[in-house]
Amino acid sequence: MKNYAIILASGTGERSGLEIPKQFIKIGGKTVLEHTIKVFQNSRSIDEIIVVTHENYIDSVKTIAQNYDKVSLTIRGGKTRRESSFIGLNAIKDENAKVLIHDAVRPFISSKIIDECILALNKYKAVDVAITSADTIIKVDSENLIEDIPKRSLLRRGQTPQGFDLKTIKKAHELANQCNDLSVTDDCGLILKFNLCDVYVVNGDEFNIKITYPIDVAIADKLFQIKTSEISSSDFNNLKDKVIAVFGGYSGIGESIVENAKNIGAKLYPFSRRNGADVSQLSEVKQALESVYQKENRIDYIINTAGILNYGEIINRDIDDIKQEIETNYIGCINIAKASFEYLTKSKGGLLFFASSSYTRGRKNYAVYSSAKSAVVNFTQALAEEWEEYGIRVNAIVPERTATPMRYKNFGNEPKDSLLAPDIPAKMALATIISDLSGQVINVNRSQLSIEDV
Length: 454
Hints:
Elements: E1 2-9, E2 26-27, E3 30-31, H1 32-42, E4 48-53, H2 58-65, E5 71-76, H3 81-90, E6 97-103, H4 111-120, E7 126-132, E8 139-140, E9 146-148, E10 156-165, H5 166-176, H6 187-193, E11 200-203, H7 214-226, E12 228-229, E13 243-247, H8 252-264, E14 267-271, H9 282-296, E15 301-304, H10 319-347, E16 350-354, H11 367-386, E17 393-399, H12 405-411, H13 423-433, E18 441-444
Parallel strand pairs: 1-4, 1-6, 4-5, 7-11, 12-18, 13-14, 13-15, 15-16, 16-17, 17-18
Antiparallel strand pairs: 2-3, 6-10, 7-10, 8-9
Helix pairs in contact: 3-5, 8-13, 9-10, 10-11
């Protein structure tokens, strides 16, 4: 039985107050619709995608869809959401199938939610996605007076996708077509109105917002900036015989990456100022990578863990010291990117940078470090888009506080159990470079560790 995703992109944006429909607004370098399609494209649970859009945007959506091989159809929608949903369902020719119906303007849908919806459809014929409400919900009458305050613990805020057994949801729509006054606003509502089956609720996500108003666009833009991804499993055997260059490879996390990758059977080339590879000097970075290529005739992955942190108030710091920190932490990444391109284009490999949990907000006494790491994240996301057409993946690792010499130098001997062992972000780094991810920020902390080898 195949699993379909129907993405509803027929809205005209009347409520948004924007010049174009919100699904075609660009955020993070891509349209909202592209971001949404990409999640379903990358989901192992989805076999085919059908995009239903407004007739005025058919050609635009077809152009977008060319980049995603799971998109099997781009079709014209109806005047209402329900009509568009029914059109999408009728485009599925299989008699039996599982189908998820999703709003195009929810680009932060996660693979986890998709997987759980498909899994739930093994037991239930209809599935909704919802989150608990942090606010008290009130019911008012026509005079705007409170009529009731329902018990909050029983209330949920609905999201999409909604999932269904194909026959069941088609029957619901066919019954709806026979009604003259139907006030139901979504597909699960149809199931309940006609009492066709139980509707199971999968836990949603606060990040799975719907872009409706201009303020939502601003929020979404920020969410894309700080968005992080998780890696749940990895086959490290895929690293065997791969050629990996690691800048900052003689200390801390970089040293741990080198040791772990060597144990797997990869060919490792560590670099640092110790062997004449200062990342702030483009010529030295070029020379380092050229030396690897001359020996191996290929470079599969390049990782940069090189960084410095000089603690102190800006007013008390020397400007040359500040420049050195910026040149190492940020310009170093640019130098490595420029020097890496010719090799990674040939190998269709990956480039990995290291940021810091401080990138989301400037921190007192290490303003230069935290702002440089914020720049690294932005650079990673931009570079991933620039290099997508060349088949090069670019990502960033954001480790929790880790027990490294740099950490101890600035903060003293903190309790070991309060810090990550370097081995943990090292293994996550290796898992990231062999993944299909690109343009992603990978958080590494205790609450997210799920790789079996870690």
